[in-house]
TrEMBL record:
PANTHER family documented for this protein: PROTEIN ABCI12, CHLOROPLASTIC
Ranges annotated as spanning the membrane: 12-32, 38-59, 71-104
Protein name: Biotin transport system permease protein
Subcellular location field: Membrane
InterPro entries on file: ABC/ECF_trnsptr_transmembrane (IPR003339)
Membrane disposition: Multi-pass membrane protein
Cited CDD domains: EcfT
GO CC field: plasma membrane
UniProt main location, coarse: membrane
Record keywords: Membrane, Transmembrane, Transmembrane helix
Keyword Membrane among UniProt keywords: yes
Annotated organism of origin: Paramicrobacterium agarici
Length: 198
C-alpha cells in the first residue's frame, strides 16, 4: 500500500502533505478512541469511500487496497475471536481496516518525498532537544521503501511455490521470506555504511 502514488487531478492530490497527515491523525483519533458506534464506524467507512471517489482513484482501487490487506483482516478477526465476543472483534477489525484504508488514501494521493519533507519540517522544533529530523526522515524513507520490497519477495515466493508444488506451505514460505528479508536488510545496511551513514 505504501509508496504507490497515483497521479490524478483532484483536490486531495493538491492538498499539502502536512494538512493530509494532520487530518489523518484527527480522523484516526475520532474512529479509534471513542467506544465503537454506528456514527464513528459508519462515518469512517463513508469517509473512506468519499476519499477514494473524490481523489478519482475509484472503487476499483479501493477494492484492490482491501484485497491487499485481506490476510491481515483474517488474522485480526480469527485470533481474537477465540478470546473476545464477536461484536468486539468485528468493531476492532472495522477500526483497523478504516484506518489502513485512510492511510492508503493519503499515500496514494501524496508523493513519498512530500510526506518525508512534511515529517522533517514538523520535527525541526525538536532539534533543540537532540532529535535529528534528517535521521528520522531517512528511517521513514527506508521503512516505506521496505514494505513494497518485502511484498514483492512474498509474491515471488508464492509464485515459485505454486509452480513447484501447486499448493502453499507456510513453513516453506515463512523461512525463505525471513532469510531474504534479512539479506535485504544487510544489503541496505552495507549501502548506507558505504555512503558514510552510521
Amino acid at each position: 500500500m505504501l509508496g504507490q502514488y497515483r497521479a490524478r487531478d483532484s483536490i486531495l492530490h493538491r492538498l499539502p502533505a502536512g494538512a493530509k497527515l494532520v487530518g489523518l491523525i484527527v480522523v484516526v483519533l475520532i474512529v479509534a478512541v471513542p467506544p465503537p458506534s454506528l456514527w464513528n464506524l459508519g462515518g469512517g467507512a463513508a469517509l473512506v469511500v468519499a476519499c477514494f471517489v473524490g481523489a478519482r482513484l475509484g472503487l476499483g482501487e479501493l477494492w484492490r487496497q482491501i484485497l491487499g490487506i485481506r490476510w491481515l483482516i483474517v488474522v485480526i478477526v480469527a485470533v481474537p475471536m477465540l478470546f473476545l465476543p464477536i461484536p468486539t472483534v468485528l468493531a476492532t477489525a472495522a477500526r483497523v481496516v478504516i484506518v489502513l484504508l485512510l492511510a492508503a488514501g493519503v499515500t496514494l494521493t501524496t508523493r513519498t518525498t512530500e510526506i518525508l519533507d512534511a515529517v522533517q519540517r514538523a520535527l525541526q522544533p525538536l532539534r533543540r532537544f537532540g532529535v535529528n529530523p534528517d535521521r528520522i526522515g531517512l528511517m521513514l524513507a527506508l521503512t516505506i521503501r521496505t514494505v513494497p520490497v518485502i511484498a514483492g519477495l512474498a509474491g515471488e515466493l508464492r509464485d515459485a511455490q505454486r509452480a513447484r508444488a501447486g499448493r502453499l506451505s507456510v513453513r516453506a514460505f515463512v523461512v525463505p521470506l525471513l532469510v531474504q528479508s534479512l539479506r535485504h536488510a544487510d544489503d541496505t545496511a552495507d549501502a548506507l555504511a558505504a555512503r558514510g551513514v552510521e
